[in-house]
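Exam prep: given the inputs below (a chain plus calcium ion), describe the expected output before reading on.
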Amino acid sequence: MKVLIVEDDTALATQLQTGLVASGADVTVCYDGVDGLFQAQELPFDVAVVDLGLPKLEGTELIRRLRAGQSTLPVLILTARGGWKSKVEGLEAGADDYMEKPFHIEELQARLRALLRRASGYSSELTAGPLTLNLTSEQFSLAGQALELTAYEHRILEYLMRHRGEVVSKAVLTDYLYEQDFDRDSNVIEVLVGRLRRKLAQADGFAPITTLRGRGYRFAD
Ligand code: CA
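Solution:
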């Protein structure tokens, strides 16, 4: 799960980041609304955690602009306890869920997983032919057997599955895979997709990933 955190309280941001990374998430932190909006628009995240009181651009305005740009990124807002008015404004701006501060990181994680399940049609798993991704355990299985994948292979396969039927460019996959400063090399994506194809083909030649020359990849079952 690739998570964007927009929170100007650096101590809280670090605490969130540490907790989410420990549970296997890939986390990017922004400390103001302008940077947060930019990241949310430019990079492929699975879910965003947005504080409402932010410098440069308020959280509600960030969400409003994100939604005005047709983004369906699931957003959970962080609000002050008892701040019902800001909560309502945040939800009306297009947030999907909220949590009052202070909160337990475990509850936040559960809410984020629920948002992801909702984004995948309330299912507890994603399936494509013999391939299943259990959204609770975050484990892939192929023809009923656990499928062993590296962290990068897992991320690519999950992203393609979540965007099935769409053309996904190598640039988007690279953004999804790496932190911004990573030395990007699109050959790495080709190698990873090649390895994924070989692993998936073990199930009677299952071949859900198509290459569209010069455009990217498409997952279809
Ligand atoms: Ca704040």
